[in-house]
Specification:
365 residues; 2 domains; 8-stranded parallel β-sheet; alpha/beta; TIM Barrel
């Protein structure tokens, strides 16, 4: 699966009583689907996944999947401390139609995890059995474990390890991983204009063949999960709709894909070889972060830096320091539902809310 572009790691909305608000979750997902975001991460760190029950994780994955547009890549955060539980959640996500599994580094038994053989065995076990391509997730600020670049480079040889989400903040490490995995050759199926092609797009195409609906060749939207589910799905031979146009595809060299999770150094990371970003600040400002990516993609690094400078202070303070409470409040300011956080997290004080309002004053999305 192509992982180029901006991927908001969406928040999980809660009612004031602490229960999950699925209506607001669907609202947010539908709104992200109208932005240039390449896809969404569901149940990431920003989604407070570790604070959810197993049943809530399942329902959040299901609700987000039903609300998402067919053209957006769906990444499911499925990493658990044990390989067996990771596989169970990954298999559930695959059954819903997710495209990629984001698997956080296990970290509770840290001394053991610092032994390379343990981490290699964990990811190889999961990747061998996972029905979805695996994206390694490194976030040492919360796990206390920083997976070495050498282990990542070794894991890149596995055909079902698609890449890494690197949230450590080191551009030098990004460059080492990119350079150390250049020999990995993989191709992915994409649309005629080189965007990611999801199986759900092909499902929508075949659904049109059954119903006679018009389906545009580009930018397919999925608004009827039931129609997609009843379609005879055959990824290798998409049918034309009775009134639509066949979905044209081509292949693109992807290799081992490095995406980053720190907005503060996004242009520098792209310049070092990263292909995209799963950025918490994009939850509140997906368009602003996309403008940074688009400028870099067009080869205008100076413009990318200018666009980055516009959001640098807000991204560093809100996503980097105030974390999930800050991101959720920034979402509230920009038309997405942020709402309460779950204990042990606490809502922002009045002074901090005022600070976030000032930082977000000129950043609309």
């Amino acid at each position: 699966m192509l992982l180029h572009g901006i991927f908001p790691p969406i928040t999980t909305p809660f009612y004031p009583d602490g229960s999950v608000c699925f209506q607001k979750l669907a609202h947010n997902v539908e709104r992200y689907s109208r932005t240039p975001a390449a896809g969404l991460l569901v149940l990431g760190s920003t989604g407070e996944a570790v604070l959810l029950s197993d049943a809530e994780r399942h329902e959040v994955l299901k609700s987000a999947r039903e609300a998402a547009a067919a053209h957006q890549v769906l990444i499911a955060g499925t990493g658990m401390e044990s390989a067996a539980e990771t596989l169970r959640l990954t298999e559930y996500a695959a059954g819903l139609g997710y495209d990629v599994a984001l698997v956080r580094t296990p970290h509770f038994y840290r001394d053991q995890m610092n032994r390379p053989d343990n981490m290699l065995a964990f990811y190889r076990f999961v990747a061998d059995r996972s029905p979805l391509p695996v994206l390694i997730y490194n976030f040492p600020q919360v796990t206390g474990y920083d997976i070495p670049a050498e282990i990542v480079i070794e894991l890149a040889e596995h055909p079902n390890v698609a890449g890494i989400k690197e949230s450590g903040g080191s551009v030098a490490k990004v460059q080492r991983m990119v350079e150390g995995t250049r020999h990995v050759r993989r191709t992915v199926l994409v649309t005629a204009d080189f965007r990611a092609l999801t199986p759900r797009m092909l499902q929508s195409q075949q659904a049109a063949a059954h119903t006679g609906d018009i389906v545009p060749a580009g930018g397919l939207q999925s608004s009827a999960a039931a129609v997609s589910a009843k379609a005879g799905f055959s990824p290798s031979k998409p049918k034309a709709g009775l009134l639509g146009t066949p979905l044209k595809t081509r292949q693109k060299e992807a290799g081992f894909q490095v995406v980053v999770g720190f907005a503060q150094k996004f242009p520098e990371s792209l310049q070092a070889g990263a292909v995209g970003g799963v950025l918490a600040f994009a939850d509140a400002a997906p368009m602003a972060m996309f403008e940074v990516y688009a400028a870099w993609k067009d080869g205008d690094m100076e413009l990318a830096r200018q666009k980055q400078q516009r959001v640098a202070a807000a991204a560093a303070r809100i996503a980097g320091e105030l974390s999930i409470p800050g991101v959720k409040y920034a979402c509230d300011l920009n038309g997405y539902y942020g709402g309460p956080v779950r204990l042990p997290l606490l809502a922002l004080t009045a002074d901090l809310r005022s600070e976030v309002e000032g930082l977000m004053g000129n950043i609309k999305s």
